[in-house]
Amino acid sequence: QVQLVESGGGLVQPGGSLRLSCTASGGIFSLYSMSWYRQAPGKQRELVARISGGSTNYADSVKGRFTISRDNAKSTVYLQMNSLKPEDTAVYYCNAALGNFGSWGQGTQVTVSS
């Protein structure tokens, strides 16, 4: 079973940037579809971005601002977040999926505020 550890969250001003990282252990990283989700207070968890088999897809709310990438040699997936907005404030979670198997990280807080 793969274990996931996120890092890179924090407090940033509107318009700023952050890069989240999620490092996996215990599995063959390259086989997994990797995603970033987020959950804001009082809201459901939502998909932000996914990378699978070289393809990427994004939520409409982050298209053009966020970029997901992965380094299979480092077993790490990244989320580069630019032009951040207050509405991007949430706990961001990394997810690894392979068939019916899924694993979640513990989450990292991103707060966008002046």
Topology:
Layout (H helix, E strand, L loop, with lengths): L2 E5 L2 E3 L5 E8 L7 E7 L6 E7 L2 E4 L7 E6 L4 E6 L8 E9 L2 E4 L3 E5 L2
Parallel strand pairs: 2-11
Antiparallel strand pairs: 1-3, 3-8, 4-5, 4-9, 5-6, 7-8, 9-10, 9-11
Alpha-carbon distance between the termini?
40 Å
What's the story with the biggest beta sheet? 7 strands, mixed
> What is the H/E string?
EEEEEEEEEEE
Helix content: under 10%
Q: Which regions are unreliable across 5 or more consecutive residues at pLDDT < 50?
A: none
Query: What is the residue-averaged pLDDT?
Result: 96
- Approximate strand percentage: over 45%
Number of helices: 0
Rg from Cα = 13 Å
**Global morphology:** globular
Total strands: the figure is: 11
Q: What structural category arises from helix and sheet content?
A: mainly beta
Produce a short descriptive summary.
This protein is mainly beta and 114 residues long. Helix content is 0%, strand content 56%.
Describe the structure in your own words.
The chain is globular, with a radius of gyration of 13 Å. The mean pLDDT is 96. It starts with a strand and ends with a strand. It is mostly beta strands. The chain has no helices and 11 strands. Strands 2, 4, 5, 6, 9, 10 and 11 form a 7-stranded mixed beta sheet that branches. Strands 1-3-8-7 form a 4-stranded antiparallel beta sheet, with no helix packed on it.
